[in-house]
Each structure stands twice: as structure tokens, then as C-alpha cells.
Amino acid sequence: MSRRRTYSPSSSTSELMYPSRKVMRFCVLSIFIIAGVWVFTLNSDLSSSTTGNSQLFKRSKSNHNDETGGGGEEKEHLVDEYVNLFPKIRSYTETGQPKSPPVISNNNNNNLNDDDREQHNFQLEQDELENEDLIITGNPSNKIPFDWPRTKKLFVFGDSFSTRDKDYRKDGIDGGHFQELHGKATDMKWADYLYAVFHDFHILQYWNLAKVGATIHHSVLPPGLESYGTFETQINDFQDLFTPMPGPWQVQWQSNDTLFIVVFGINDNGRLNRDDLHEGGTLNITTTTKALVDSLLEQSKRLHGLGARNFLFMTLPPLHLSPKYKLPSQVGHDIHERVEQSVLEFNDYLRKGVKNLELELNDSNLMLFDLNKFWNLLLTYPELFGITDISRFRITIDGRLPNFGRMGLAYHDNQHVSWSSAELIARSVNGLLLRHSASLQLSNATETEYTA
Description:
By secondary structure, the protein is an alpha/beta fold. The chain is built from 16 helices and 9 strands. Strands 4-3-5-6-7 form a 5-stranded parallel sheet, sandwiched between helices. The protein has a two-stranded antiparallel ribbon with strand order 1-2. Strands 8-9 form a two-stranded antiparallel ribbon. Keywords: Hydrolase, Membrane, Transmembrane, Transmembrane helix. It comes from Kwoniella dendrophila CBS 6074.
């Protein structure tokens, strides 16, 4: 016979006011479970697995740790790392004209805080610069500041990353205006976009001496075919065809109105890491990459001797992340790690070398666009740039091949970037050149306008 508990209002009131141990344990356990679920959910929301490709939360957490002193030493975030490479510009409150112009170079004080920059670089006044040529009185090097909007001539040296495959020895010197690029929006190299889209092609003349397959110098790593040539042979072409300054009548270049762009190393790093090209032996990465950079900068001094005063160099992109080396099915996958290491060391030597060369050539403006940091940023956040895929380089729709650039693919083939990527690179290079320009840095500024 079961026992039935009789109900009474007084006993119910007593249980509510003085709950049993069993009820108390249940309540405490429930609170802990709820708190645990809440903490787990919070951590999951901030984890990389739930934020997908975006690492914006990581940047926020990193900044928070820095402020609170928590955790170990935090590595600078990709975004900050890239942004800090650009010279700063005046805020809208800093009007007038700089009395002491900022140092616009790779050695600039990009990381100065606002107070220091205002004190040292932007002691503003309404006076004009002392002459039209923008020569800064009191500058010990008597360096003429670079100005991209006023640049009238552009020479490009490099490999297939930059080439238009022109042969000026065979075809002769032209006026530097590529009519076929004017008004064009797709299927161009990054240097073409820089000329035809981001500058005024009515003003800028453009000669592209870059060659497919070119390396830096025969003595370090020869090109695959003799016809590909090297940086040295491209300088020989320039010297024979465009000098002495001002060159042929249709060129008429001057030191202060001409930019020289030098982009090499992709073919060198590919050949460096292929043992079959070196009689089965493995070349030493450190000594070879140093020799490559030393040769690149030494030959750039040849251009300086011929009159060049404005230079733009580029680091190498992370080649090991291109399909050729990253994808298991591609020919370079077996040397993926060696390519990663050689590019890392090449870029380290180049960054230091450009700074040292600028100190040596104190009458010249040497700029470095860090393509490696930019491309890492694009590969990490492709959505921010409108890029759809960073690995595959072909797409077939209804049996036909659409334009890969229009489809937002980062690569056109297993190692060359698509035109949509080339346009993004040109846009970023244009921004760097403008940030280095006297029209922004040295001009008279109001709250709403620069007047150069």
C-alpha cells in the first residue's frame, strides 16, 4: 500500500521559505550549468573557427591584451603592419604649410605619435616654399622631393609580373603612350593600371623594359633562356636607347620628373630552389638571396649614375602560397618550404638594403612597396577586396571559360595574378606614391583642400 503525502498549505509555505538540501543542491547546480554554457558560448563566438576568414576579433582582442598587459608579447596585426608602412598625412586640423617638412622616405617616422609629429614635422605657417622646384632650403642632401602627380615619365624594369613584352631595340623608341590601354578596364598588368588608370595617361609617358623570365644577374642565377635576359641587360637597353639624359626627342626625361620601378626576384627564387638546375646540388638560400639583393641594388646604382633619382622597389609576394607551390597537384609543391624560406630571406635583405641605399644615395628618393605584406593581407581577407577564391585559377560555366578576373579569382594561372588582383596592387601602389608626394606632404593645406 503506497504512502500518500497529505497536502497542507502550511507545509508548502514552509518548503518555500526553508527549502531542503536536495532543492538547494539542484538550484546551485543549475546556476553553474547556466554560467558554464554562457562562458563556452562567449569563447566560441570569439574563436577563429566561428569567425571564418575574418580575424577582426583577433585584432580587437590583441589590442585589449596590449592595453591590459595580459598575455605575452603580441605580434603586430597584419592590418597594422601594412598600414604603418605608409607615410602619415596631416589631419584636417593641421592647416597651412609645413615649416619643417616631414621626412618622406623609407626611414620616415611613421610611428611617431600625433604630438611628436606635430612638434617636429608640422610647425605650420602660411609661407610658401622658397622656390618652384620644391628644393628644400637647409636640406643637407639638397634632395628634390618626389611628387607622383607631377611625374611625367615612367620606366619599368622586371619580369612577367610587370612586362608588356616590348622590344625597343627591334621596334624603336615610341612616344611612351600605349593607345590600346587608354580607357581599358580589364586584362592589364599592374604597371599598366598604374599608367592608364591611376595617373593621367595624357601626361604620363610609360616605357616598359621588363621581360618574361628575366632574372637579376647571370652571375647569380641565369635566366632559363638567354633571350629572357636579366636586370643587367634591361639596363643596357635603357642606357643605349634612352641616355644620355634627356634621351631621344620623343622622350626628354629629367631626373626630377621620372620614376624608375624595379621589381625582380620571382624567377630567381623559383630557380634557386630547383636542385635539377644545379647539377643535383642544393644552393644555399641565405648566401644566394643575399647575393641576389646585393646585385639588384648595385645595378640600381647604375641607373642612378645615368640620372635616375626616384626609385620604387617591391618585395616579393608569398610565392609559396601561390597555386604552383601550395597545391599538391602542382609542379612546385615539393619545394614549397624552400620557396617560403627563400622569399622570407630575400625580402628581409631587400628591406634593409633599400634603407641603406637611400642613405648612400642621399640625393634620391627610394620607396619600397611591401607587396609581401599586401598580398598576405589579401589572402587572409579576400572578401574585403572582392576576391572570391585564392587557390583555384580556372572556372567553367556551361562549358565555356569566363573571364577569370571578372570571376574574382586571385590568380590567372598557377603563379600569375589575375587582372583584378593586378588592379588592386596598382591601386595600393598609387596610394603609397601619393603618400610620399610633395603635393600632399609639403603643400598648403586648408581644412578641406591641398594647394600644391
